[in-house]
Design brief:
The protein is an alpha/beta fold. It contains 13 helices and 8 strands. The chain has an 8-stranded mixed β-sheet with strand order 3-2-1-4-5-6-7-8, sandwiched between helices. The longest helix is centred in the middle third of the chain and has 29 residues, at 165-193.
């Protein structure tokens, strides 16, 4: 299958690079820049077409995908807008960051000053691979631009024509996925401090057995990504407050992950954290 679409990735971390390779497999041309990025990011971007700068990305892309830490979503949108103004280009901008619908509106305003239309999106699951399935939710008038790409390991679903709907899905699902990880982390850390981990795991098994599988890796991976989780927790708190729920729970979760980010575990890369399967070792490093 071939397609004439050119997709720009800003920026090519683990998720952005994997999405880019999936869209390449669907026939799209995918460009990105690693200017000023770490050697790890350069390695993750292997196989993607590299250009010198973000301005070069927007100069050739029909669609620019923004994906990074949630707290950087608006600054990234402004950087894209500045590059578009510099090159007098108006690509579709797809924001796939884990942000609240209210922040989506800020992103839309930011790219709108360059005359760009926003496509709202959110991702559920790990970086896509041919042998797995990652869900991509899309909303906005031009959602079909990405939804029509049949990419291996990626299942795209249009959830409406109004921006904010795709991000609302993410805010709701992430509150459960990452909220459970935060609860598990706190519970097992407390259990280990009192030498009752085995008793606690046995008690929880009947209700949460499947979710407890791989608890060590779940906690270690959360630590390795803890630098971006507090921002995402605050976005969830904002989304829940706007819906009439209390923001206190996920403001507290932001503090849980901020604390986790100060531990020895947080110095691990996600790749090395995935190899930590001994629960006692992981808890000891907290």
């Amino acid at each position: 299958m071939t397609t004439s679409i050119t997709i720009g990735i800003f920026s090519p971390g683990a998720m952005g690079s994997a999405l880019g390779r999936a869209w390449q497999a669907a026939g799209a041309r995918v460009v990105t820049t690693v200017a000023g990025r770490s050697e790890r990011t350069r390695s993750l971007a292997e196989g993607l077409e590299l250009v010198a700068s973000l301005a070069e990305v927007v100069a050739v892309a029909d669609t620019v995908v923004s994906i990074g830490p949630p707290a950087h979503a608006v600054p990234m949108a402004n950087a894209i807008a500045d590059a578009c103004l510099e090159r007098d280009r108006q690509p579709l901008v797809a924001d796939l960051n884990a942000i609240a619908p209210s922040t989506v509106a800020e992103v839309s305003n930011a790219v709108g000053r360059a005359g760009c239309e926003l496509l709202d999106g959110s991702i559920s699951g790990p970086p896509p691979r041919p042998d797995s399935s990652t869900r991509l939710y899309l909303s906005g008038p031009s959602a079909h631009r990405l939804a029509d790409l049949v990419a291996p390991g990626l299942s795209a679903q249009v959830v409406g024509a109004t921006i904010g709907r795709a991000s609302a899905v993410k805010m709701s699902t992430a509150s459960m996925y990452k909220g459970f990880t935060g609860l598990l982390l706190q519970a097992l850390q407390t259990a280990r401090a009192n030498d009752v981990v085995e008793l606690v795991l046995a008690d929880l098994h009947d209700e949460f057995g499947q979710l407890l599988t791989g608890a060590a890796v779940r906690i270690a991976m959360a630590a390795a990504k803890a630098d971006r989780y507090p921002g995402e927790m605050r976005e969830i708190a904002s989304a829940q407050q706007a819906a009439g729920a209390s923001p206190a729970l996920f403001e507290g979760m932001a503090e849980v992950f901020r604390t986790l980010g100060a531990t020895e575990l947080a110095m691990k890369s996600p790749e090395s954290a995935a190899a930590l399967t001994d629960l006692d070792e992981v808890l000891a490093r907290l």
